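User: Glycosyltransferase, Rhodohalobacter sulfatireducens:
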Amino acid sequence: MSEINELDELYDGLIRSEPTTLFVAPRIRYTHKKSDYLYLFYKKLLDSPDFKIFDVSTAGHLKFILHQLIKGDSILHYHWIQFSGLGSVFVFLFKLFCIQLYLLLGGKLVWSLHNKVPPDCNHEWLHIKARRWLAKKADRLVVECESIIPDLSIYFNVSPKKFRVWSHPGYPPQLMPRAAAIEAINHRYDVKIKIQDRIYLMFGHISPYKQVDKVCAIFKDEPLNKKLLVVGPVKKGQMAYFKKIRKASQEMNNVLLIPQFIKEDCVPEFFNAADFLVFNYKSVLASGGVPLAKSYDKTIILPEKGCLKEQEGKNLKFFKSQKELKEIIREL
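Assistant: Predicted structure for Glycosyltransferase:
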C-alpha cells in the first residue's frame, strides 16, 4: 500500500543508522510556524529523538554532499525545484548537479510531487526532462492522494511502487469576528468593504495558472454587493498578466486588488472576512490554499482536478468548466 499512517514511515528502510539524518530542501521557515508548509509538514519530527533534520539553502546543498562523503547514511527530501528565468537556470543546474553527486555517493532521495511541472514555468521542456530524471533517481515519491498515482507513474515512467501518499498538513486557524476582520482590512489596505458585502476571496500569488482574469470577468455581471477580493503578491515574471487584471478591475466596482505579500499575522483577517474561497486552477495536483480555507470552515469553490476532487466536506462546491463556475457564483 502506498498510504502511510505516520510521517516517519515515509523514510523506513532507506537507511540503517539511528537517529535518521534527514536533509530538507528548500529551507524551513521557522519564523512562520502557523503558515509555512514545510514547518507544518515536519512539525512532529522536529522534536523527535529518532530524527536529525537539517534544512538547506542553495549554498547549503554542499552540506548534504559533505555529510554523505564523510559519514554516509543520510536521506535528502526535496520539495520544490524549479527556475523562472535565464538568470536562475544556473542555480537550477547547480542543484541538480549536487543531487546527482549526492546520489553517486550513496545518498537516498525522497521527492514530493506538488505538480507535474511548475505552474506557468518558462522552458517547460527543460523542467520536464529534469523532473523525469529526478523521478527515476528518487527512492520514493510523495503525493497527496492515491488516484493520481497511475497517471504520474506513466508520465514520469516510474513504478507505482515508488509512490507514498501523505496528505497536506492542516493549518491552525486564528478565528476573529467577521466585522473586526473587515474593519482591519479596510484600515490596513485602504479598501472599502461593507459588512453586508458577500466576499469571494482569491488568496495567494497572482499568476495565470490561477485564471484570476476569468473570475474577474464573471463578476462583471454580478451585483455590487458581491465582491471579488484578489490578494497576494504578483508572481515573478507575471507583471504583464497582473496589469491585465488591474485594467479590467478598474472598470468594475466589485473587484478589489491587494497585490502584495501578506504578513502571517494578517492572513487570518482575510479568511475570517471572506464568505467564499475561490480556486480556479488551470491545472493542479494539490493546493495549499484549500486546506487553509477548510481550517476556517469556509465555503470553497474549486475545480474537480487532481487531488482536489478527493476533498471532502459539506462546504465544497466543485466545478468542471468555467460555465459551471459562473453558475455556482451566480447561485451563491
